[in-house]
Amino acid sequence: AERLAELVGGTPGRYSPYAVYLSGGDPARLAPIRDGRALVQDEGSQLVAQALTLAPLDGPDGGRWLDLCSGPGGKTAMIAAIAAQQGAAVIAVEPNPRRAELVEQNTAGLDVEVLRADGREPGIAGGFDRVLVDAPCTGLGALRRRPEARRRRTPAASC
User: Do 16 and 28 meet the contact criterion of CB atoms below 8 Å apart?
Assistant: First the structure.
């Protein structure tokens, strides 16, 4: 985060060791974003992804990680980047075709297999060491950026 903050004129995040705060402007105009070396993601989402990678396990980590309801892929990309450092691979499951495309775009160059399937029956063998399920894909991790989202949520809302 410190190196990225220097490159983009930001400051390291307060909570996530991967976050960089920007004072304004369009992040898409920054070279690290354009080049695919960084993504725009709320710090709350980063903390969720980091928690998955740091959770203690009973036994060794066999390197099989799963992200259900993975679209648009921000958390998947972060998980996959950390997984790569640990020799793990990620399978991302997303039923919505457009969101699955976004997962593929956001994880380009990372060891991620994207499956277009319903997470309840994805058609893959079990035995994952780490599993992230953001269902029903509420978007509530972005409340700081979109506070009005809390009023649009209903019990019937889903991915």
Answer: no
* DSSP secondary structure letters along 16-28: -TT-EE-SSS-GG
Closest CA to 118 of 128, 108, 133, 102: 133
Cα 44 to Cα 144: distance, rounded to the nearest angstrom: 9
Sheet containing strand 112-115, edge to edge, reads 112-115, 89-93, 64-68, 130-133
Task: Report helix, strand or coil for 70.
Answer: coil
Measure the CA angle with vertex 46, ends 91 and 51; round to 5°.
Answer: 70
What is the C-alpha radius of gyration for the chain, rounded to an integer number of angstroms?
Answer: 16
Q: What share of the chain is helix, strand, coil (3-state, %, to 5)?
A: 35, 15, 50
The 10s digit of each residue's pLDDT in 96-126 is 999 999 999 999 999 999 999 998 899 999 8
Tell the residue number behind the tokens 């992200």, with chain if given: 67
Taking the C-alpha atoms of residue 52 and residue 48, their distance in angstroms, rounded to an integer, is 7
Average pLDDT (11-33) is: 95
- The H or E element spanning position 110 is none
Question: What's the pLDDT tens digit per position in 67-87?
Answer: 999 999 999 999 999 999 999
Task: Give yes or no for residue 158 having a pLDDT over 60.
Answer: no
